[in-house]
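@channel sequence for tomorrow's demo:
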Amino acid sequence: MSRKKKIVVKIGSSLLANSEELTLRYAFMSGLISDLAQLQKEGHDIILTSSGSVALGLNMIGKRPEDAGILDKQAAAACGQPLLMNAYRQIASEHNMDVAQMLVTVEDMEERRRFLNIKNTMMRLFENDIMPIINENDSVATRDLRVGDNDRLSAKVAQMVEADVLIILTSVEGLYDKDPSEPDAQFISEIEDVSEHLESTTSISALGSGGMLTKMQAANMAQNAGVETIIAEGIIERPISSVLKNERRYTRCLVTGETASPLKIWLSNRLQVAGTLVVSNQVAAAVVAGDCGIRRQDVISIQGDFVKGDVLHVYDESGAEVARGLTNFSSDETLLLARHIDMPVEDVIGYKTKSSIIGAENILVLEENHLPIDAPEEGQKLVVPR
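C-alpha cells (generated this afternoon):
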C-alpha cells in the first residue's frame, strides 16, 4: 500500500439499490465512500464506476424492473441520476472528499478522439484530488448504441488510465465453478485464462444489466490491457481496502503476457463491432505473421455500416477473428474499392489517398486470450465476385 496506485472500482445496481423498494442503500454507500476517501488520503487515484440511476428512477415513473422497456429505462435514468449523484456528493462531503460526474456512451469510448478527451478530463480531476464517478448515459443510449453494462465500461476506464487494479464489487464473494447456491460449488480464488470459466457465468441479477459473464468479459479486457481484476463481495465495512490488504476472500484475475501499447490496447478492447472484413485464409495468415495490412483486393466481404477511423474486425474464411484495425475508408467506399480493384483509388471514390483498407501500422493481431464479441446483425454487404 506504500506505492501510489490507480484504482478503478465498479459498483452494481444490486449493491446500491434495495431490490424491493428501489431506494438507496445508504449504509453501503457510506461505508464505500469512507473507504475510498481513506485510500485517496493515502495518495491513491480512485475512479468509481457506478450503476444505479435506472433502478432509482423507476419509482418516479411507476415501473418495476421486470416491466420496464428501453424508453422507460431512459426516462428512469434521467430521474435517478440526480438522486444518485446527490447522495454520493453528500456522503463524500462528510469525508472532505470532492467528486465529479462523468456520463459516457459507447460512442465516446469507441471513437479515439472522444476516448482521449475523457482520459484527459480524468487526469485533470486526479491532479485536483477529485474522484470521478462514471456511469453510462442511459437516458440517451439506445439498445444498439450502449455499453451494455458497467462491468465492461469499468474495464475500458481501467484501460484508459492504465490502472493498477480493477475491483468489481458484487453480491457474492467471487467466482465459483458453478452456481454458488449448489452445495458442491467450488470457489475459484485465482484465474489465468478467463475463457475457461465462461460456462459457469450465466446468471443476471434482477436490477443489473450484466452478471458474472460480463464480469469475466471485463476481466478479459483488463487482462489484455495489463490490469489485474478483483471480483469481491460488496460488504459495508471497508469493502475495498479489506481486499487490497488480503483480509478476506475474493477472485483475482491475473495479468499474463506482455502489455501492448496504449493504441494497440484500445484497438483490441472493443465494446461494440463497427464493422467486419472477411479475407482469404492466405491473407489472414500473412496478417497474423505481421507481413501486411489489408488491401482492397484482399477483401471477400464486408459487414456493418462504418466510417473512416472506425475499428474493423478481420476474419478469415472459416469465421475465425484474426485481427482488428483502423479503417481508412467508410463501408460504402470500401465496397466500391473492393469491386473495382483495377481502377485508381481517386477514380473510384473521388479523391486521392492511400489505397490500403487497413494499414499495417494500424492493425493488431489478436492473441488467443481475446474473447470474441458479437458482430453487427444489420447492414451486411457482400463484395461482388471479381
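heads up for whoever presents: The chain is about 35% helix and 20% strand.
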